[in-house]
Amino acid sequence: MIPRRSQLHVWNPRDLTLAGEEIGRTAEDTRSRAEDVYRVVADLGLHDDWRGPSQAAAEQRANTERTEFRRLADDLEDLSTALVGGADRLGHARDYVATVIDKAATDGFAVSDDWQIVSQPKTMSDAEAAEHADLMEYWRSQLDGALTELDNADRDMATAIRGALGAVAASAPASAGLSGHEGTALGEQVARGGSDIPQDVRDRVAREIAAAGLTPEQVKTLADGGKVTDVPQGTMDFLQQFYTAAGKDGFLALSEQYSENGRTEAASALSNGLAVVSNYNVGSAAGDVGGRSHIPESLRGLFEGPVTSTGNLTKGANDSPQQSMVVNNGHDLARFTKAFGLADPAVQQGSELSENLLSRAGEIASATNDKSLLIGDSFDHNVLRRDGVDTLLQDMVGVGGRDHAAVHNILSGEGMPTDYNRDDVVMPLLQRDWAEGGERNVAGMFDWIADDARPSDPSDLGEMFRSQQAGESAFGLAQILAAKDAELLDIPGMKGQAIGEVNPEITQALGTSLAPYIGNMVGVPESFTGTSAFSGESGHAHLRLEEVPRIFSVIDSNADAAGYFNAQALGVSAQLEQAWAVDGQAHQNPHYEYGAWAGNLQGVVDKGFDLEFADRLGDETSQNAAGFESKGVAYDTIRTVISKGVEFIPVAGPLISSGIDLADPTFKSAVMGSIPDSTLQANTDFADNALLANQYYQIALGLQAANGGALDPYEGLDLFRDGENGPLLSYDEIGAENPYQRLPLLQSGLVGYMTDSGITGLGNFIDSLNAGRDQVKDMRYGQ
Hints:
The model is unreliable at about 680-685 (pLDDT under 50). The longest helix has about 55 residues, at about 55-105. α26 (about 560-585) packs across α28 (about 630-645). This protein is mainly alpha-helical. It is about 65% helix and about 0% strand. Among the domains are: about 5-170, Ferritin; about 180-215 and about 225-285, no CATH class; about 325-445, no CATH class. It is flat, with a radius of gyration of 36 Å. It has 34 helices and four strands. This is TPR repeat domain-containing protein.
């Protein structure tokens, strides 16, 4: 910043120099004291009266503190250098400006307060006036150069100071009280306060916890899958020791007292701090990382040990007690879930407590899904009855499920204990007969997967991480549906009902989450689908083709879910057929695998319905009112879904690059043309011919797009164009009137056009497509 001339004389760079020198002495003193502390602790180990684990731990801690203080001293030294060096340059720049002003004055020029060159008017000849103007321009140039150097010196110094101050702030505790010792003392005060924690203690905790919070940049790092490694050690110590000293009861009491007094920000900050110390992606530069080891033992106990115990439930005053089931720690779990739910979901990403909530919810659901069980204990008013357990599970899934990293780990098994079995956690949640809120929360565990499946910017590391996290999560989910289809189509204890009937919202969420990966399921590579990591954490696992119809059958148990999911599958199939034409065929690489993938998908759609219907026929007690009553109704519904404007997910890379609009009515009409028409099934020969005509039509659409939006003139296609030599009409329009005559003509015209255009391998491609479809349809299950 350039001051006015009248302000320049009050600039005293010497004051900055003195401040920098004092900070430099502080840096040296800090470094010296750190060495003294370490030396004193280390020397204690030389005496026989203090040896063993406690001495070793103290020495290690002292070494950690020495490292942190050395870093702080280095940062203070950088700040000192920024001040002293900047003040020196600023002083020289200021003196240079003064020198220019003085020298300009000897030539009769003055400098105004806003840095303009001025001179007293006087009578001059033309030659003198010209010489005077040149001289004025010279001094104006000199002054501008001097002021530019002054401005640069000021800006560079400010930048250096800001950078150094930022480093100091990162190395030093955010407040004087953030240390392990202070955390212990404050936590003990909270614990002693019990149900009435003193106001001054609550106020101080609120201030210190807020000071210990993550920065927005650190929160973004967590969201992008990175690790936060620059939390000051004093802050980590403060948080860990505070929660350990406060314990479960102190944490819960403090959170509830904040909420009761309307201090929602303080309650949120309290839970944010717990999310930080329980997060394995957060640590200090000294290597102290959050996670299970930092969670107070009393809180860990909520998620350990037997899930249930035996109780005695009395229905009435004169009734004898009946044996019942008690959810252990149920009341405190409910209190904890409510408190932890006040944390910022962005800060929560990666907390082991999220995983604990989801894992324990699965265990509780498994133990209580049988509705014939009596739940509760009349002798303990804090024990939950069945409705209380339902609410508890709903909340546990809601809070834990908003942590995408935790859901990913639950589904993929990454980072979980060696004895972890995801089926034990996920299946009870999918099979439970939820109330509306609980079903919505389980569905919410998965609804982010589709959003993150495809990165919009592959150069953005955060987007790529989220895409990989989504792919690995979707793969785990697909594996569960494929392996547990029977238990989801016949939920135990639900009289043969399927998941689509018991939990329609969850089933729809499953279909939406897996839709971007439909192509991957049959082997379409990620370069086509734009997805990532749909092959498990190792990157080497793959679904077997015979598993894919099982996935479809589960989603087919709900008509709304099936309508969308199968429409997407047929849309992918259509894209692959068109991509074969767009990508160009060569003898060396005819791309017949596009046809095999497209045919596999058509077969999977059909086989999925077969499996779901076959399962339902074996259920004497369930008609699955949520599913389709027949395959004809199913296909008619898919037609309706497409006609009402379903948005197809882009899949085929060559097709995308060609610019084909998947929202175009022509494309949607072509997709509907590949769906068996129930009104034509009586004439099997014609249905087969109609399907063949549609396959040629799909390929022609790809050629049309690659040819600028219309096929070249060809007499055999004139009947099927929109105007002279215009684009092809939609498949519906072509077949709307007298399809028995027009569709065979369309097929003949397209074959002739493609033959004349030099398209080779058309017959082999169609054979590949039909073989791919038959490969799936001929699979035998249950034998």
